[in-house]
């Protein structure tokens, strides 16, 4: 089985898209899963949810559960399914409940500041 670890991310993390800061957090989490790159999860309370629209897209991870997706709506465009959340994560990863993760890309920046 893939080993998943969740730790508090050091420092302060931000996520930006379309020239706007969507969120900044000193309470972000780092999820490490096997050979995959680490993923930063932001507390939902630290994200400007007005920029996010829930979509119908879903995926399933055998280790984490069912993921719901959000598109980021900026002044100039909508970045489809750019964020995800596990609304009811499995017990082993319960710490990521009420957190959001973002696909870093040329349109979305996730970084320690």
From TrEMBL:
Q: Report the superkingdom from the record.
A: Bacteria
| Gene3D superfamilies in alphabetical order | Domain of unknown function (DUF427)
Tell me where in this chain the DUF427 domain is found. Answer: 14-104
Descriptive protein name: DUF427 domain-containing protein
**Organism whose genome encodes this protein:** Roseovarius phycicola
